[in-house]
Structures
1.
Amino acid sequence: MPTLGPNSYGKAETRVVRVVRDGAVHHLKDLNVSVALSGEMADVHLRGSNANVLPTDTAKNTVYAFAKEHGIASAEEFGIRLARHFVTSQQPIHRARIRIEEYAWERIETAGRAKHSFARRGQEVRTAQVSYDGRCWEVVSGLTGLTVLNTTDSEFWGYVKDRYTTLQEARDRILATDVHARWRYGWSDDARPAPDWERGHAEARGHLLSAFAETYSLSLQQTLYQMGARVIERRPEIDEVRLSLPNQHHFLVDLEPFGLTNDNEVYFAADRPYGLIEATVLRDGAEPRIPTD
Amino acid sequence: MPTLGPNSYGKAETRVVRVVRDGAVHHLKDLNVSVALSGEMADVHLRGSNANVLPTDTAKNTVYAFAKEHGIASAEEFGIRLARHFVTSQQPIHRARIRIEEYAWERIETAGRAKHSFARRGQEVRTAQVSYDGRCWEVVSGLTGLTVLNTTDSEFWGYVKDRYTTLQEARDRILATDVHARWRYGWSDDARPAPDWERGHAEARGHLLSAFAETYSLSLQQTLYQMGARVIERRPEIDEVRLSLPNQHHFLVDLEPFGLTNDNEVYFAADRPYGLIEATVLRDGAEPRIPTD
Amino acid sequence: MPTLGPNSYGKAETRVVRVVRDGAVHHLKDLNVSVALSGEMADVHLRGSNANVLPTDTAKNTVYAFAKEHGIASAEEFGIRLARHFVTSQQPIHRARIRIEEYAWERIETAGRAKHSFARRGQEVRTAQVSYDGRCWEVVSGLTGLTVLNTTDSEFWGYVKDRYTTLQEARDRILATDVHARWRYGWSDDARPAPDWERGHAEARGHLLSAFAETYSLSLQQTLYQMGARVIERRPEIDEVRLSLPNQHHFLVDLEPFGLTNDNEVYFAADRPYGLIEATVLRDGAEPRIPTD
Amino acid sequence: MPTLGPNSYGKAETRVVRVVRDGAVHHLKDLNVSVALSGEMADVHLRGSNANVLPTDTAKNTVYAFAKEHGIASAEEFGIRLARHFVTSQQPIHRARIRIEEYAWERIETAGRAKHSFARRGQEVRTAQVSYDGRCWEVVSGLTGLTVLNTTDSEFWGYVKDRYTTLQEARDRILATDVHARWRYGWSDDARPAPDWERGHAEARGHLLSAFAETYSLSLQQTLYQMGARVIERRPEIDEVRLSLPNQHHFLVDLEPFGLTNDNEVYFAADRPYGLIEATVLRDGAEPRIPTD
């Protein structure tokens, strides 16, 4: 009989909005929470017995109840609370992984005294993943959808040329990418104090941005390494950074047929194909644990 | 033989990025341009003769060449230039409609003196549509993807109840929507000076936001009207506003089964179905011209 | 005070799946229904009075209740029933427009006698729009997401060349498009028998496909006209066809740098920009009523 | 200095359409190819030296040249050819991973003798991933976007109930999912003959479908295991199957407020949240190698 291998189940994409009313001043947290649970689940796969199965509907209810009971101080803190609950309250569940997307809102400034109006800040999404096996924690935070572009200070030349190479070398090009970053905190033990998740996120994001802007780039790989290294060097609580950076090609348009010269002014922003550069940057001695796939 | 009715053709979604270098300080315009042309096109439909057809590839080339030759002062100004070109340079073309999406970028602030690094501002897209028939202009500007939310000051009650009505009345609810706005400028004649398109857009957007935030809402229709009326009242250059506002329902989660009270704190953000409220608000005496469909 | 112009409201994207059990043989209808209502709605916009407003939640409930009470013989028939209900049962509502997307499922063939298993047929979506003002009906059916491609029998040459034209003429190219078609039935009067909507859709779709495949094309406009004309000529119940056809460019890859000849064998399927060809084809004497925008 | 961890680079999403002309009968392969290369890449990350970097543009060119030179017998065979080329022709490259999506087309049947017209078959995508390190092959094939639904023969009861459980047990429910399947072939050695990739895919797909349809389901986990086990039992060339199955909830609509009984006839198809069931099924003795994350 075929063997059951790695497996998990849970409720994905529970959308919870939590309002806190501080008098007339309101605050908002907007999360998308996905719960994945693993443990003694052979019976349900092999025989259809649900005796060990807490329904995914219950995972959804728990998200809402915890938002009320405990509030949402940060995505990471909320994920830790949920993971601990499932692993410690359900004997057959040995491991929980909570994934959270957080959508940012900013206040709409108005002439009046109203403090309950918000606008979504953009396409960037903050991410947090919390894994717990009853003993150790692993917290991987990150972001997606942060699109950045340098109009200069990027070159690409000196590369390998084979039979199929036609690319011209570039001494001044646009470098643009859509940053997908994940960083793993060293914290894993309840006995140690947890990092300041809100500050950690803001700081890591800031270092990624400034390293992107400040690096004179000879390749997107070099820029990637500088971005990851900047975070490792400045944030002692972070041991590992993984970056996935599509090279969003901006091709210089050939204007010569129209009697015009293109002095790096007019570009075609291409969709596909795109280069894809992915790498992990580690604190010296740390093991890579963020999945590469 | 079946008759040929209304028709148009052109190149859609030409992606052009225009860089302006003011010494070390760079500026950026990022547009998605769609050209639609109409005129004496019976032959190509009925007989496959392309004698009147300027290729759509040429429309694409023209976008790039004009970005170099004339720069991009604003989406509207660029659209006017393109529309005028096609209608006046090609005898068989009697009408041009240029649609532009503009993506906003903001500078990445860095410690260094570099001024060539940018981050995409978000999911909001500025839109402009320019139509020209050789005599009159019609400019409709707008925006999509502006998501806004009030955590209070919204009610919904006193509505019709029929056999199929089960909705409970609400005295305090979240009101959230994703604003799709279009506004038509009164300007139509080359002999009159054109409005300041950049300022017009910023002002209209600001009025939409503040009207949304400042309206105590008894229905999304009321909020919609206030938003449109605010623009009409404050911007004399704008004659018509059309708003399409999905009611992005945030349902109060029932926490009673868990022994908890939900004091308007925990909401489920639903995807579908959603209410959809659409209306045009007009300057007194103006005709509605923005399509309703 | 700014004037209220054209407006509508309703519930969009109510997802209803209706199962019919004929013993062990089950049947399935899978619809996405959007209701838009108009009428005496000045008060709700101007003063926030909901006295004339049937909640959008009730529109959703009505969709589900009607699916049970009346079944879903076809999207069009279901839309007619809903539109009639809202206009005739609510005095302030003068006009209803029902838009429906229908997703097709096909049976999974199995060795057993089970007849309750289905697989989604694909990305193609059947559409229906029913409008009713209490006297006249307008039914526009259609489809989206039907992607078709001819590997030959397509040329493009003899076009206008201006200063910005660089395109090479083509005597053999791939012609590919993603068909978005809408067709308007002549039926408008309850006193006359309605067409067979299921058969009408299948026949119109078949004619679009065969006209696309059988036309030797000198331009996508010519192919478009042939597709529309074929439907008008073969289906007397249809008075108007509107087609929106993106020209999904497949560019011949230049293999000469690699010492290879590309005999119309290897193509790059481009995303953007794309040509966009749109036209209406009419029965002689019919008015174009399908919106062009 | 921070350490460089796992990394790769390459060109993603090269869209290639390959036509084969057998007289008037044409054949079509439509692929989306992503190349990822790894090896001696420390210099480019740490110092910006591209001396070991074959440009991603060259990877794109190679895809097109190989499509001409060797044709595309199957996605897997094409991926093997590409992976072997990069690893054996570039000394610094030690590992290649080729990911391919294949889009299916079916012939448009026409009255004429034309055999060059095609329609996209649907949203289902065939996938293939080939990894090569110079010695061993790993081929993981699969599919995404296969949406299936049983209208009956599904129950869910006997599960754990905690403080947050409110779900009612179900003795007859709709079971619907969007199958994402990957299966790993045992073949890894050039010295052994490779499997028939086309037949392998068709057979695996057929077994997944029939197991879904024929399983009387007490939980989606049980159905998942049956689907994977069916493939392992029937296809000796496949050692591992991983399935990711969202539980696309179809909720029975409560029609009682309208005086109607819902005898499992009318359902609301929900978007989010959804259950997510994931598991690997293995041939006895095989190691799980398909990533779980």
Note: Residues 232 and 264 of chain B are 35 Å apart (CA to CA).
2.
Amino acid sequence: MDRKEFRDLASPETAREAIESLSLEGGIERVPLEDARGRVLVARLDAELDVPGFDRASMDGYALRARDTFGADEADPARLAVVGEVHAGEEPDVALEAGDAVEISTGAVMPSGADAMVPVERTDRVERGSTADGNGGAVSDDGDAVLIRTSVAPGDNVMFAGADVAAGERALGPGTRITPRDVGLLSAIGVDEVPVRSRPTVGIVSTGDELVRPGEDVDSARGEIYDVNSYTIAAGVEDAGGEAVLYPHAGDDQDEMERVLREAASECDLVLSSGSTSASAVDVIYRVIEEQGELLLHGVGVKPGKPMLVGRLEESAYVGLPGYPVSAMMVFRTFVAPALREAAGVPEPETATVSGELAREVRSEQGRHRLLPVGLVERGPTPTADGGRKGADETGETLVYPVDKGSGATTSLAHADGVVEVPAETDYLEAGASLSVSLFSPDVRPPSILGVGEDDPTLNRLLDRLTNPRYLSVGSRPGLRRLREGTPDIAVVAGPLEPDGEVVELGDWEREWGLVTRAGNPDDIDGLADLVDRDLGFVNRTTDSGLRTSLERALATLADDRGVDTHDLVDAIDGFDVALRAHESPARRVIAGEADVAIGLADTADRLDLAFVPLGTQSVRVLANPDRTAKAGVCDLESALVELPEMR
Amino acid sequence: MDRKEFRDLASPETAREAIESLSLEGGIERVPLEDARGRVLVARLDAELDVPGFDRASMDGYALRARDTFGADEADPARLAVVGEVHAGEEPDVALEAGDAVEISTGAVMPSGADAMVPVERTDRVERGSTADGNGGAVSDDGDAVLIRTSVAPGDNVMFAGADVAAGERALGPGTRITPRDVGLLSAIGVDEVPVRSRPTVGIVSTGDELVRPGEDVDSARGEIYDVNSYTIAAGVEDAGGEAVLYPHAGDDQDEMERVLREAASECDLVLSSGSTSASAVDVIYRVIEEQGELLLHGVGVKPGKPMLVGRLEESAYVGLPGYPVSAMMVFRTFVAPALREAAGVPEPETATVSGELAREVRSEQGRHRLLPVGLVERGPTPTADGGRKGADETGETLVYPVDKGSGATTSLAHADGVVEVPAETDYLEAGASLSVSLFSPDVRPPSILGVGEDDPTLNRLLDRLTNPRYLSVGSRPGLRRLREGTPDIAVVAGPLEPDGEVVELGDWEREWGLVTRAGNPDDIDGLADLVDRDLGFVNRTTDSGLRTSLERALATLADDRGVDTHDLVDAIDGFDVALRAHESPARRVIAGEADVAIGLADTADRLDLAFVPLGTQSVRVLANPDRTAKAGVCDLESALVELPEMR
């Protein structure tokens, strides 16, 4: 492909071709046999020797001349002189003449003169000096003898040299991905080192002053955040058969960024930059690639992924990924991983793609090829009238639901299983449409259960007892709504909310809620009235939360008692509108000194060593979609709920 | 499970239970995030911080108070004073008052006083001293200003602290197998080290004086062979999520064997012994386990696998595998791998099991649970009348054929894809029966093409051009027979043999055959007559070989010429009955000094630097099963055949 610049956006096909045109292959290396599993052979390996290398006894018994056994049977055995013995790993020190036999063990070398063997079970050894002929008769003899009670043909019970693998035979061909049984074949022909395709090395350069590597401290006041893409993309690279090299974080300093880029390019087969959302970082990279390398493509008509850069720098290929984690992962999975797998010689496993049915309609912006992050949920077997399941093995169809928390959110990455490509000409996908999902990793499995609703510490402990659950803590109200819409298996609802469709209640527990304040309750907070009447900084939960609902009901009761309007009480609370999403978040604001008192659970106060002022209890209920009650994960949760009293 | 000895054979279920009762778990370890992919979390990880940790601008633009934009639109923009700027990774050094705006970049901290932001596309900056109001009017101003051409609500284009992940939220649960997207979530919450299940360590002890590690020299005269099981089982262990440790080869010395066994037991979670077929080695192991450990089970009613030992030694579990490679692999796959996967927390991938249809009937010995090694071949799409395929994606059903070369043969391991369990009560499986195959590895894929027949160097080069072909060099005659029986896709036939059913000829080539002798032809061999008339040691091919057929025809012609019986000529050739299986084997006997002259190909003589006396040419034909001509692998071979003249 010649040097090109795309002032207009390139098509996704052009982007794929541009990436394919970059040579990502990593050359050839020799690895010891014990490290060969999963690697890809680059040359044919022929056997350089016969296997076995000698005529080999297949059983324990006697080596002999077949002709000496002709006519022998149980009733009329042949009597042969035992002239020696040979064990596995020994060179025979004896040659057979007519009428001779040699005791031989499995795997031993057939002595010269022998052309067959008889297993020990069909023989009887007669000791020196014995005159038995096995039939009560008597013969004279001056050495050990053996009675052979069967006749054999030449070659019987012998594996001839080269019978397994003959020298010069083709053993394994180029392109073979070595599995354990191939290791076995290579062992058999004595190969202890194999020429394999090198894994493509992929340098990962993260840019952006705001990024901090996990493990270091982030300074939120300066807007620092953890670098999500570097390790994520590195793991994706390894998944696709490449070898990831993380380069030191370059910040937004232009000289430093250029130095790191060039270093990575000189050491790797491919450089991926990722992380920064800053226009200046993108500009620096663009300038370096354009001036000192070769720019194949700048800008692709795909959403997300529009600013994708494809080019070469030094001897390396270069692809720039979007900064947002979900976007980076989707673009990597769709455009980069297939090229890496091709270069590594590791084909995409069949399990990396699943098909399913769209859970709800999706409207798409026309004119841009779209990458849609999606989650999977299995319908499970259909429950029968008696509560059993129809067909235990039946998993039901897979539902595919769009994950739409926004590309900036890393949780959408945690909840998304893969990506669906929506072509530019498609502006509408109807519910029930059949889709092919490219999983983020072949190891991704649909969750055993998909739950939505209230965030709760007891629920977290229940989820710990399940294998591979997924729970989206969207709050009680949105949880109920989503359950009604049909995607999740269960919703968890706290407080006085009622479902308006048919649901199956799997179980419930009580939780104590109230006000959480500094350890020792230094402000002497006594109850709800203090919030209204005193000058205390409060932190609330969002209106989606069951806790908020209970708080509002308690305030209404207080307003009734005082004969005032609830609004007046609410207005009197400083921070009533500071609404946080998770059950621990308000309490953590108290710890941080940003509030005096917060709404929360007794459990949370206990865990975080804070004081607690009880205001009431509310029940937390687990409600299931009636069509999903036969699903294994739902049944497991039901069992865990039964054991809940013991767990607490 | 209490200490038990089984004088009678245990059932396969009892063996499974005994192995499950051994604790193979390897404990807990902490690994850095970059090594966490594929590992299994042992504890729940909650977020210890909010993500983002601050209210974050979602775009480049202006942070402001939403209230100041109310009513603004394109025609009537709001004019705000620009009082500062804040970039990603910077702490804002300005607070907003009413009427103020701050220039802000994506990812930066919202300055105090701002509650929303407007993207730069919906604004116009007006310079210091400008009096433009954006509508041609004039206002006076003494600083920079910005015209806001849209109204926003509080929170618009801002991602609030904790909106993605809130501190205290459940991030990942115990038992999660970490995929790249989970690495992303862990990165986001700053985790750089995770507690994971240790991989179970598996010590592999090989015994038997005859075994030599690949890479060393084997002395065939002493009956030495390469140790196949150690590396093969080690690779299987790694496949199943364990960590293999190979111990030095112990030979048959009893003290040494005991020392190695105890060392392995003290260092590993499981010890597997394998390799020796000698009764004495098995006895030593039995004695060590019984006297110094705990013997749970000795002898299982499964074929192969009867001598299986299950027990404990030191703190380790112990399982003894059969000595023959295919048997060892089957017993490992059936009994040990599932327990290892369980201990490693790595469930068996769905791809590790495939279902198919039995290609031909199998009769089984009654009363013993049987493990049957099998190969897979796909039928491929049905060819259409015009030579196309019906449905390009259709792969057709999978045929399952028993691989029956004998358990001592390592090639049956190379040609077997997995194992089928045949219960003791089943003595007959009919052709077409539906079977479930446990693959030796989830990476095993059915070959793209299954060929049988003549061994030929040109064919080997053709096969090198295909992806994942499988070829069994059984000889021309058996190749034709197998093609007729319907399992393979193609047969390769050399010499004057004709198929007796319908076949499709894909292509052919000629090969020159004759006599191969020492370099320089020191015996002055001129032709076939020398073989008959002179005292030369000859080496032949098997009767299955096309070369042998051509040789016999040439001898018949010579007999005709001389007016004698062919038998007389054959009897006069010393070594006519020394029949070797592979095309290079006779020539290698000449090199080894074990024969004067051998049947062979010009190609082989050339490659091995031997002299060649031509006797004729024969055609090698590639014949396809007419039902398989639409299969991708068959089409690829057909294309390679077209390019053959260029390859040679």
Note: The two ends of chain A are 65 Å apart (CA to CA).
